């Protein structure tokens, strides 16, 4: 299959596929005489793995490590678990930040009298960060 077919099969943009190839997380495919890339079903599976990992927030280095681990099915999954735990910890940190952001925005909106800008509590609150 060609790169457009791979893109449609996986939902991954063509430029992103090329980026993954340059980054080394997706192997460079063989090319036809006309220079077009030729992909296999294994590339669809690998790109699906990469896409799902990226959707879960894993960086490319972690994705590369996870891909390398899956090529050694007899190996311990301790490293995979460590990588997933680190990602979970990061998600938890982001959730705390988002909850704080939500509280601050809710406070700003609640204090807004919806009058004139000169008396706008939203504008005023942006000048005075909460503690």
UniProtKB/TrEMBL annotation:
Q: Which UniProt keywords apply?
A: Coiled coil, DNA-binding, Transcription, Transcription regulation
Key word Transcription present in the record? yes
At the top level of its lineage, which domain of life is listed?
Bacteria
Start and end residues of each HTH merR-type domain: 1-69
Q: Where are the transmembrane segments?
A: none
Tell me yes or no: is DNA-binding among this UniProt entry's keywords: yes
Q: Which GO terms describe its molecular function?
A: DNA binding; DNA-binding transcription factor activity
InterPro entries from the xrefs?
Answer: DNA-bd_dom_put_sf, MerR-type_HTH_dom, MerR_fam
* Entries under CDD domains matching the protein: HTH_CadR-PbrR-like (cd04785)
Positions in coiled-coil regions:
81-108
Q: Which PANTHER family match?
A: HEAVY METAL-DEPENDENT TRANSCRIPTIONAL REGULATOR HI_0293-RELATED, REDOX-CYCLING DRUG-SENSING TRANSCRIPTIONAL ACTIVATOR SOXR
What protein name does the entry list? Answer: HTH merR-type domain-containing protein
Species annotation? Devosia riboflavina
